[in-house]
Amino acid sequence: MPLYNALLEHQKLCRSSFHTPGHKSSGIIDPELLKLDLTELPDTDALFEASGAILKCEKNLAEIFGAERTLISAGGCSLAIMAMIRLAAQNGSKLICGRNIHRSAVNAMALLGIDPIWVLPKSDGYFTGRIDADDIRKALSENNDVCGCYITSPTYYGEISDIESISKACREYDVPLLVDNAHGSHFKLLKRDIHPLTLGASMTACSIHKTLPVLTGGALLNIADSRFTDGAKEAMSLFASTSPSYPIMASIDLCANYIRHGGTDEYRQLEPIVANIKNTASELGIVQPEGFCDPLRVSVSTSSIGISGEAAGEFFRSRGVEPEMTDSENAVFICTPFNTAEDFYRLKNSIISLGGLEKDYIRKKSGTISLPQIAMPIRDALLSKSEFVPADKAVGRIAADTACPCPPGIPVYMPGEIIEDTAELNDAVKVVAVQ
Ligand SMILES: Cc1ncc(COP(=O)(O)O)c(C=O)c1O
Q1: Is residue 317 part of a domain?
Q2: Index of the ligand 1 atom closest to the CA of residue 78
Q3: How far apart are CA 421 and CA 435, in angstroms?
Q4: What separation in Å is there between the alpha carbon of 136 and the centre of ligand 1?
Q5: What is the count of structural domains for the chain?
Q6: What is the whole-number distance in angstroms between the Cα of residue 353 and the centre of ligand 1?
Q7: pLDDT one-digit tens code per residue, 177-221
Q8: Among 60, 62, 78, 95, which Cα is nearest to 223's?
Q9: How far is the CA of 80 from the centre of ligand 1 (A)?
Q10: pLDDT score of 251
Q11: Last residue of some domain: 208, 240, 258?
Q12: Which of 49-53, 146-150, 154-158, 366-370 has the lowest mean pLDDT?
């Protein structure tokens, strides 16, 4: 039982969880839920033909998130993203896309034959950065045949784009704004409601298992624009399993109840606690994302004080703190009300002690990111016969996959693009096979 045992062993470490899922195994989710692992029965409704209990649950969620229609996904946010793109693609085959894009969106574009028009985020060199409303406006003015505009906000590091201005630009061109809000499901609950749907997005894909108390795999597709409500279930079922997990779906229902009965207050009460940790990091000279960011996510550039993300990760773990993610230069921590006072004590003290570690990292000057030349559509490249070649032999070949070094979390190439530089890549690279 290798996997089961690995999970039990990890549990024995009793680390403070600053990773997904948002419930932090705290017991907030009814442990009896597993006994409700049922299937579509006359009285349990069916996800893709919802007309009873599931539809009622979805209506409750739509009310909470201020959506015209909300759809449950038990296949993660990836499924909600694919459905969202499918809905937009009914009106054309070109999509304006922020380049910091999740793999599921690239896959959906390949399967649906969509061509992206890329917009690069404006990065500070430490983290991913934000999509600028002026860049979106420019792309809209130069392309009159797009079916939508797709951006990721917040980023993994918690940076939030100016959704209000971006949605205003999209409305002026009558183009729907699709937001990958995977990391921002809790934005509706904060002191200031900064959920992208509230700020004008047409649709959002929200990975509620990441930051709210929901079992892993639980996500939502929120639709504000009534033009997209009708075919939404069909769009999602196109990519989904016909056996969605009832415990996952039930945990989403429990989460809706939690939000309505005190959950919102708990998230708001957390804001000053996390702000205090962020202030501590700032006072120690540790760089964090600038500007408007997720108030409940701590992202620190450990490299800004000469420590690699990997070394920092080991240090945090040795202090009983499990980060959501460490990359070569940064560490990311997801905080929810299901973290305990002891968790926050450990996190703050570990950040304070970080400066005592031996310096092992000199920051490289971040180069400017440019868009590679396109040799073939994403679809052709992703579905083509491919082969793996060593990174140094891949320059000049056509990519059959995406490479996304973190930071900055912006792909250096996408399927179908000519590979220009592999200096940042260690592994073998997947390229289109030479016929
Ligand atoms: C920005 C972003 N979008 C989408 C996803 C996919 O979410 P899920 O794992 O719920 O399918 C992730 C997962 O980490 C993500 O980081």
Answers
A1: no
A2: 11
A3: 23
A4: 23
A5: 2
A6: 31
A7: 999 999 999 999 999 999 999 999 999 999 999 999 999 999 999
A8: 62
A9: 10
A10: 98
A11: 258
A12: 366-370
